[in-house]
Every structure is written in structure tokens, then in C-alpha cells.
Amino acid sequence: MISMSELKKLKVFYHPLSVVANIQKVAGEKYFFMEKPRALFKALQKEGLNFEHHTYKPFTWKDFELCHEPGYVEAVRTGTPIELAESCAIPWSEELVAAIPYATASIHAAAAYAISTGEPTMSMSTGFHHAKYFMGGSLCPFNDLNIAAEKIHKESGLKGLILDCDYHIGNGTDDIISACNQAEYLHNLSMGYLFSRLYVMHNEYLLLLKEKLSKELKSGFPQYVIYKAAADVFERDPMARNGPLSLKEIAKRDEIVFGMIKEAGIPVAICLGGGYHSIETNILIHLNTFKACSNVYFNTGHTYNFSL
Ligand SMILES: [Zn+2]
Known about the structure:
Elements: H1 4-7, E1 10-13, H2 23-27, H3 36-46, E2 51-54, H4 61-64, H5 70-78, H6 82-85, H7 94-103, H8 106-117, E3 121-123, H9 144-156, E4 160-164, H10 171-179, E5 186-190, H11 191-198, H12 202-219, E6 224-228, H13 247-264, E7 268-271, H14 279-298
Helix pairs in contact: 3-14, 8-9, 12-13, 13-14
Bound molecules: zinc ion.
Zinc ion binds next to loops.
């Protein structure tokens, strides 16, 4: 028999092999954010938050060919040609190649679990939304969002929505939707496009998000949602410059999103998205996302932390 406290545990999908050990040594200091899955997992433990840890099987190299050109997949696997292997702008290494099948499989595992149980889940992946069909892009080797949707469609025929709340645009996701004819079963609502076109800030951003998400949910199209709950929309993020939201507004964003998806009765899997302010800021924002999800679904009453 399952106790109430068991039901209140958010399921977290993290594999220790998804993180490159000593990434800064291998790739350089600026790649600190690649340690984020491990750092966040440790922080969840340290905070004593009520979660259940799940590991999962890595992707096979054949899985990447679901949404990427086989020649590109082979280039990443072997490191040759090096220009193509490094088209995601991360220096190629055997350590990176060993981690990629684990780093990219957690969104699929989290979404499949959410679909089969109806419970919200959290993947420790960034969601590599810049990876295109023929090449990687901007720190994204393979697009784990499109691959997850492709596998889910093959497994269950379900249609999904990627709710991409990263500061940056989900251009790779759209490229693959087009290249792999996924439009019939995958929508990409990338707030980055709207933000950069309309330059909406703070409350206006949240109102626009509500409007666009509501339209998607009311359309009846998505049967599950992958929510890329990025940290780089933070107003002090150095990469984003003038991000649209304060720390409080990012927590509000998460509450809005979870509230609407819960009301629609659709399963949701969270992934993390970008964030370049500092590892501590990333952790604080993602812990708040975890708390928002737990609060909305399980009435846990967690208080958010807004002090850096
Ligand atoms: Zn970003």
C-alpha cells in the first residue's frame, strides 16, 4: 500500500554518468554549467526536499539518428571530422562522448514516466534546444527534446508540447520538427521568439506566457508537456542581458505553468534550460521550480528562496 508521503514525492531523473567529471579541466572554466545536474541533485538532497530518485537507460547511438543525420551522429561519436563533432561549441573529448547518451536520455525517461503515471517528473537535463538535424549548436550536441517526442510518438502515438521558457530561441527544435516531419505530433512554444520580437518584460511576459499556453492547452493538441524551466530569463543573467524576470517572477512563472497544466489534466515533465549567472543562482532558481511543482501538485507549502 502506498502512503500519502510516497505520493507526494516528485520523481527526479538523474544519472551520475550524465555529468562529465571535472568538466572545467576537460573543456574550460566557462563550462561550469555542465556540472549543473550533479550540483542540483546534491542540493535537492541537502535541502531535504521530498523527492524520489530515478535512474534510466542511456540512449543508443541509433536513437540519435531518430532526429539527426547519421553522418553528424557518427562525427560526434568518433570526433571526426572535428569541425562537425564540435559544431555544438563544446570541445570534443572521450569523456564528453561517454556522457552524452546519459545526458540526453533523461527527458524521455521523465516524460514517459509522467505519461504512464500522470505524475509530474523532473529531468536534470538542460533540454538541448539549439541542436539541429545536421549539426549541433550553442552548447547543444543532440536535441533530447525532439528525440523524446519522437520516441513517445512511436511508443504511444501521443502528441506533445514543448513549452520552452528559455531566454534563447528553440531554433534547433523547430529545425528538427521540420526536417523530421514532426509537426503533426509536436508543437514548440518557445517564449524566446516572443520575448525577442516583442521585448515584453516582467508582468507583461507572464501575461503573454499565460495567453500562449492557454491557447495551446485549449486547442486539445498536447497530450503531454515538456516544460523547459530555464534560469537564464533572470534579469541579471550575463548571457541573456536584461532577462525579462526577477527571481520572484520566475517562481510566479512556474506556479502559473504548473497550475494551468494541472488544470488541463495533462502530464508534465520538467527540464532545466540555460542559466549563466552562477551555479548558485542556477541552483536557487531550479530548487524554486521544484518547490513550485510540489506546491501546486502536492500542496507541500514550500517557501521559495529569493536571496542570492
Ligand atoms: Zn538559454
